[in-house]
Automatic annotation (TrEMBL):
Residues 273-292 are annotated as: Disordered. InterPro entries: ECF_substrate-spec_UCP037395. Residues 273-284 have a biased composition (Polar residues). The keyword Manganese does not apply. The keyword Acetylation does not apply. The chain crosses the membrane at residues 16-37, 49-68, 74-94, 114-135, 141-159, 171-188, 232-250. This is ECF transporter S component.
Amino acid sequence: MRAARLHAVRLGPRSLAALALVGAVGVAAFGWPFLAPPASQLSAHAQDAPWLFAGLLILLVAVVAATISESDLGPKAVAMLGVLAATGAALRPIGAGTAGIEPMFFLMVLSGRVLGPGFGFALGSVTMFASALLTGGVGPWLPFQMLAMGWFTMGAGLLPGPVRLRGRTEVALLAAYGFLAAFAYGTVMNLAGWPFMGAAASNISFDAHASVPANLARFVAYCLATSLGWDLGRALCTVLLTLVLGPAVLRALRRATRRAAFETAVTFDAPKCTQNGSGTSHSASEPVKHPT
């Protein structure tokens, strides 16, 4: 029988509440063009965007802090988070600017699968933040990227069969998820910039006076015209790396997780006592004194 799945970060009540809050705010921030009625006051959102982005970033930090404090994240899990985040941040610039080739995404899929949704959300957010510092990509879009990548990595941890499903079937499942989620990530990130193009820029930009179906048609046209090729490259790269490197990386991550034993409490044994030739007991860690 297989061992139960180990979680480096367990989501408790406070963590789930914070995650639900930031998710609701994130959905509103991404989808407000389709949630607000035409000609509403939200057309002034562009002026308030920096404040909203700052609020999102604060909520993301609160989610990670609540997750860590409630799950009693140990030094081994912190080390694992740091290593994977640094690796993902280093992988991101490899294909930057080249047809959407972003090898970071396949590592996020596999890490979220092995280490669970709680660790996955924290890893996705931290990795995107670290990569922004590494590449100089800090800007008002960063909180959106952190949230979207957190969702992306957490989704891999929520896939079915984390204990029983292994082998080619699991790799195929992760490849399919990576393909679809790569498109979803690109589509969600399009929502972060599309409303601020300005109605005069193009007939595919957001129009605050148009109806929701009309704006939805504009958004689909915007995605097809601007990001379809990039998202397809990201999706194909994720699938290829998952199929080729996935089995080896999954084994390495699971081996490291078993050895780390995140859920095993650290205990210290009391010193053992032995008896010397004179019948008196002494600690095994203390030197034995013999009579002269």
